[in-house]
Amino acid sequence: MSESAPRKLPPGTVPIKEEFLVFRTAPAPQPNDDAAEGVTATTTGRDAGDRPVDSRDQPGNGGKKSWKSMSKAEKNAQKGQNKGRRFKKERDELELCWKVANGAVCDLGTECRFSHDIDAYLAAKPQDLRVPSIDEFTDKPPFGPDLSTLVKPHPRYPNVDTATVCPIFAEAGECRYGYKCRFLGGHIAEGSEGNLTLAQDETKKAQAALTAHEMNFIGAENQKRLRSKRYPLPISTQYLRDIAPPEEKNSKPIVIDASRLDEADYVAKALEVSASADPAATPTAEPTPTATEDVKMDDVETTVEKRTGDANADAAKDTPDVPMRSSEKNRLDWKGKTYLAPLTTVGNLPFRRLCVKLGADITCGEMGLAPSFLAGSREEWSLVRRHPSERTFGVQVAGNKPQFLVPTAEVLAKEFPSGLDFVDLNCGCPIDLVFKAGSGSALLDAAGKLGRIIVGMQKALGAIPLTVKLRTGVKDGKNNAHKLMPRIAAEWGASAMTLHGRTRQQRYTRLADWEYIGECVKAVREREEAEDLAPVPIFGGGDCFSAQDYWEKVEGSGVDGIMIARGALIKPWIFTEVKERREWDISARERLDLIRDYAEFGLNHFGSDTTGVNATRRYLCEALSFQYRYVPIGLLETLPPKINERAPAFRGRNELETLMASGDSQDWVKISEMFLGPAPPTWSFMPKHKSNAYGSEEGQG
Ligand SMILES: Cc1cc2nc3c(=O)[nH]c(=O)nc-3n(C[C@H](O)[C@H](O)[C@H](O)COP(=O)(O)O)c2cc1C
């Protein structure tokens, strides 16, 4: 409770009503979004000496050393990312063979290194879980039901809860995790000998082909062909020959060399590509997700014909240096649509699915690295996965030269002619290792190369449109997007552009430059008009945090829409607000219901076995590491809320709301346990940015 209020809040503080403020008014530490995106202090050329006043300077921080009393080395160790964090894969103690787990016979027989004894496995297996319905929750501790007690244990298999519902079975009519599923009681039947068998729901299975199966699987054979450089790349080979300097053109054969993976390797490590911990991307031993490649969504089907190999063949015959016009491709009709920005780690498929449910029209996968795609990396190809609910979906690729990016585009187009609505070229990534390799935002300062990349990728993609995501420039005071963007659209033929209104050097603490975004839109439109070209969609990005903000920025700058990133991470319902042009005072229970949705989507994607449950838990905690930053708008003196304001310590309108505002990573684990059952004793969550790892010294009331 507020003991010393009223006190004047410092400028830049979230205007929380006095009755919700707790004993002190110092704002919470500014969350480090640069670290969350993967940007280090060296990227920005600034030290964290400009760290805002934070609660580590306050007494009562759990016995930890105060910020002021730390040595420089200790401060350095505290700031930025938790680089050493690792997430261990949780497994069952007794490992059951995947074939047997699915009711099949294992050809390896006694040679198989996994158990074939279902009864022994079920006896040793941790007990079933269930995702409680939202009606079982209240606003007061303990908030939800005790998941350690099974509702209706099976008479002979006491670990199996016959009252549970398996989220995968509920959607797909079958569960690919079979006996290994932690929601097994949701899909068992009694065998003739009193044994357990696996149930199937044929009606659901038929429906699921259109609504539930994820799309865009490259397949093991293609990965192998990529790895061994046997994947045919006629369009790229021709294009790279055509753009090669005259002395090289005829002398040596063009080799698309994806074996030079040192760049990709270290970048991938630095980025901690989310899929590396994604059990859905794990190989052969685990179940192959149900039929996917030939699943087509209704509306996608209509475009299939337009995107057949013929378009590719035509592209190959084109004159090499003449860009393919966006008018020759599937047009992107993006006006008035909402766009969830690509987000490494946190913009995974379950999160995108949640945002789609809440109104996001366009979604884009996490950034993947072109050399890793070409090396057939399983993790990279898992980033291409799409849920059928994603109506307009693209994948994002980063790379430093046509030799990587054009072939990657060719493989994408060949493998997923109906599974991708666009491919996005990353020209904005600020991360040191990406930038220093000449990828991401480094391309902003390499116009000639950028042109060759865009023209080549457009050709290789055939009917699939290429879009480009930019920052305003590399260095502060040296914006150059206004010069590049008209060329990207009019000269090189990209089909859409998105512009994050910051330079590479600029940190999130300074606001995006929306006036400059407006100047860039104007420059593009002038050039298009002068050359009688149809306008391509331009989306702006930066700091959008409310419906009011969205529409003011759209109207003020002339963009066709806004690509939302952190706003969606903190409040995924921002898409509903934008569409309905209202600010939503969402209740804590409504928010909890969205967390429940995320848990179910996560189990569907990452898996419902022990490994999948804990991968879901990990990504749920990653999501909560942003969502706790939401200050309920019913607590505010004035609207709209702003993303760059810092929250003073506050309490919610009830205990659940207070819990959801906790910055303590242990509380995020606690929330995950409400839906996923107790975290294993060996499991821990370390957030990406250290300000969170420090725990909730703010004392949320
Ligand atoms: C955690 C995080 C991950 C991001 N990952 C990517 C990415 O993979 N690709 C990309 O182009 N931008 C990425 N970005 C940048 C965002 O897409 C967006 O351009 C930027 O955050 C500005 O928008 P905002 O102010 O709405 O957050 C990331 C940003 C954050 C905070």
Polypeptide structure, described:
The chain has 701 residues and is an alpha/beta fold. The chain folds into three domains: 1-85 and 644-662 and 686-701, no CATH class; 98-210, no CATH class; 217-584, Aldolase class I (TIM Barrel), CATH 3.20.20. It contains 29 helices and ten strands. The protein has helices spanning 33-37, 41-44, 72-78, 98-101, 118-124, 167-172, 202-211, 220-227, 234-243, 246-249, 262-271, 298-304, 309-317, 349-357, 370-374, 378-382, 402-415, 432-436, 447-461, 481-491, 514-530, 547-557, 566-570, 574-580, 588-606, 610-627, 655-660, 665-676, 690-693; strands at residues 188-190, 196-198, 339-340, 362-369, 392-398, 422-427, 466-473, 496-503, 538-541, 561-564. The strands form two sheets. The chain has an eight-stranded parallel β-barrel, surrounded by seven helices. Helix 9 (234-243) packs parallel to helix 13 (309-317), helix 9 (234-243) runs antiparallel to helix 19 (447-461) and helix 14 packs across helix 25 (588-606). It is globular. The termini are close together. The structure holds flavin mononucleotide. Flavin mononucleotide (FMN) binds at residues 33, 36-37, 341-344, 346, 366-367, 396, 426, 428-429, 469, 500, 541-544, 564-567.
Q: How far is it from the N-terminal to the C-terminal residue, by CA?
A: 6 Å
Oligomer, anyone? single chain
How many structural domains are formed by the residues? 3
- Helical percentage: 25-40%
Low-confidence stretches: 1-5, 40-67, 259-267, 269-285, 288-319, 692-701
Largest sheet composition: 8 strands, parallel, barrel
CATH topology of the largest domain, by name, is: TIM Barrel
Beta content comes to: 5-15%
What's the name of the CATH homologous superfamily of the largest domain?
A: Aldolase class I
**Average predicted confidence as pLDDT:** 84
Shape label: globular
Radius of gyration: 26 Å
* Strand line-up in the sheet with most strands: 3-4-5-6-7-8-9-10
What compounds are bound to the protein? flavin mononucleotide
Number of strands: 10
Which architecture of the largest domain would the CATH scheme give at its second level? Alpha-Beta Barrel
Helix count, DSSP H or I runs of 4 or more residues: 29
Q: What structural category do the secondary elements indicate?
A: alpha/beta
State the CATH class of the largest domain: Alpha Beta
